[in-house]
Design a protein that fits this description.
Length: about 120
């Protein structure tokens, strides 16, 4: 599988973080929400780094990964600020749900994009 090793590593890291978050549920609801938002922002940061790596390899800088990564980071920062200033858990939960829907749409669009490399002929 192309990219199987990175998918495995990502899955192991996600499992570790999920176990840590589930073990800290008893402490506070806000802590769990902020961990989830930080996790989402981290993956946005990884998308930005991948876009710059693609630029280093010769692709155009303003590609889809860069835009989605920046939007993910900005949305996560906005949710953190809203969660700290307003302090309403429902707003943060609905915002996180919107982040998940946005991530799903981006992944669906990415799945249907035509790749630049033909893997199977």
């Amino acid at each position: 599988m192309v990219g199987g090793k990175s998918t495995l590593y990502r899955g192991i890291i996600a499992l570790d973080i999920a176990l840590f978050i589930s073990s800290s549920v008893a402490f506070s609801d806000y802590i769990v929400m902020f961990y989830l938002i930080f996790f989402y922002a981290f993956y946005g940061f990884i998308d930005v780094l991948r876009a710059f790596e693609a630029k280093f390899n010769g692709a155009s800088l303003l590609n889809f990964k860069l835009i989605t990564g920046i939007l993910s980071i900005l949305f996560a920062i906005a949710l953190l600020v809203i969660g700290i200033i307003i302090g309403d858990k429902e707003v943060v939960v609905y915002g996180y749900c919107l982040m998940l829907v946005y991530s799903a749409v981006v992944r669906i669009v990415t799945a249907f994009r035509k790749p630049s490399i033909v893997y199977i002929q």
